[in-house]
Amino acid sequence: MDFKKIDRRRAYIRGRLKQLIELGRSTFYTEEYRAGIEDAEILGVMVAGFFEWTGQPIIKAFQSALEDANFHTLNSQITDLVNGKTPAL
């Protein structure tokens, strides 16, 4: 596996995603609110729209991000909530 190539691709994707977030910022928010909106919030709005405001794929994307960032316990607790169980805290 070529880790340098993977790192370059991740940097490219991150740069393109930042461009899309800035496009979202100017599309979804008025000029007076744009500066105060965090990138994560804009990305969340974009993900919701991408999945046409359907909860299951939004949750799946969220959980995939948690797993990738090694938040396994939190992801397990979310799985419990989604499945109607009380999560172990």
Describe the structure.
This protein is mostly helical and 89 residues long. It folds into two domains: 42 residues; 39 residues, no CATH class. The chain contains five helices and no strands. α1 crosses α3 and α4 packs antiparallel against α5. The relative contact order is 0.07.
Annotate the secondary structure layout.
Blueprint: H1 3-28, H2 31-34, H3 39-50, H4 55-68, H5 72-82
Helix pairs in contact: 1-3, 4-5
What's this, in brief?
The chain has 89 residues and is mainly α.
Key features?
89 residues; mainly alpha; single chain; 5 helices
Tell me the fraction of residues in β-strands, as a range: under 5%
N to C succession of SSEs: HHHHH
- SS content category: mainly alpha
Count every helix, treating DSSP H or I runs of 4 or more residues as helices: 5
Radius of gyration: 16 Å
Number of separate strands: 0
N-C termini distance: 38 Å
The parts where pLDDT drops under 50 for at least 5 residues are none
| Count of individual domains | 2
Characterize the overall form. flat
Largest sheet: none
Mean pLDDT score: 95
Fraction of residues in H or I helices? over 70%
